[in-house]
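User: Is it possible to get a 3D structure for a protein together with its bound compound? The compound here is adenosine monophosphate. I've pasted both below.
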Amino acid sequence: MNFNQFNLDSRLLAGIAKAGYSQPTPIQEAAIPVALTGNDLIGTAQTGTGKTAAFVLPILHKLLNGPRNQTRALIVTPTRELAEQIYDNIRILGAGLRLRSATVNGGVGPAPQIKALRDGAEIIVACPGRLLDLIDQRHARLERVEVLVLDEADRMFDMGFLPDVCKLLKFVPA
Ligand code: AMP
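Assistant: Yes, that's possible. Here is the predicted structure of the complex:
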């Protein structure tokens, strides 16, 4: 199989080439067609098997059409390191698409994160704790979110984030 067969927006193929991907990995082959239909899905694959791009590509495809300047995709992940990795993947695959993304996590000052949320960056990659803080402070606007990803959900729950994730779910559309 090759990436052309997914019928992804042609503007994404440049990012895929730039990332150096020639063929989809098994998780991408399985998940991307389902994600493109807009259905919910659960994917399991080991680290290093390309699962980030398996959700980033359908998100970019969806967001290319539709409104800008509002948060339309929220990716929740347990650690700052994972947030940065996902953000890097989005930057590479989404180069030139004029979609904005930002990370929202603890351990760094909140000011640029608040600005990104208030400016309506289209994609937010967040750790639960900091995002909830910024929601409490009324900086985050998640009522227009169309796609929600719980990345490494098992690990997130092992780390005790289940209550925080449940709280977050109240701020995104059903
Ligand atoms: P992940 O499992 O998402 O952490 O991805 C592991 C690594 O595989 C990252 O460096 C990705 O950029 C890379 N990768 C993802 N998809 C592909 C692909 N289809 N072909 C080659 N490398 C890929």
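The beta strands are 73-76, 101-104, 123-126, 147-150. DSSP finds eight helices and four strands in the chain.
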